[in-house]
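Posting this for the archive.
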Amino acid sequence: TVLSENPTTFTITVTSEAGENDETVQTTLKFTYREKYPDETPLYEIISQENLDDNDVMNIIKLLEQQAEENLGMVMIFTLVSAVQEKLNEIVDQIKTRREEEKKQKEREAEEEEKQRFHGTPVTIENFLNWKAKFDAELLEIKRKKMKEEEQAGKNKLSGKQLFEMDHNLDTSDIQFLEE
């Protein structure tokens, strides 16, 4: 977009190629020709940017300075824009690489947590004997409780013979049931 004719000032929007998930980075460069262009560098600035952090912007400005110095005496806008285009593509690749590394790091951390969950106390003779003593005491306590429950249940329960001896109506109950 041409902004003015004297001095010639224009903007060029440079967008990277789409990365994963159609991510792009973009910047708009403003160029102003000086009187002695191309024997002196044009004035340039970044007037807008998308998805770029401050470090990336500084790297683009340094790249523009370097390319402008290398191309003194030649028409250089195309070269500058091409260099910025390549830099933006590199940034997209770096973002992709960074995300992949973060994903791998999270997977590694999850794997380590999983290993830690299954990593117990190393078994030594002393550890085992202490555990065995506690385990045997718990088993003995459970058996005692079970035996007490059986004894209490056994005292209240009468056998079939005892029931018949206590209640003589049970002698004839089956015959009455059959007759009905």
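The beta strands are 2-4, 9-15, 26-32, 43-50. The CA atoms of residues 77 and 151 lie 101 Å apart.
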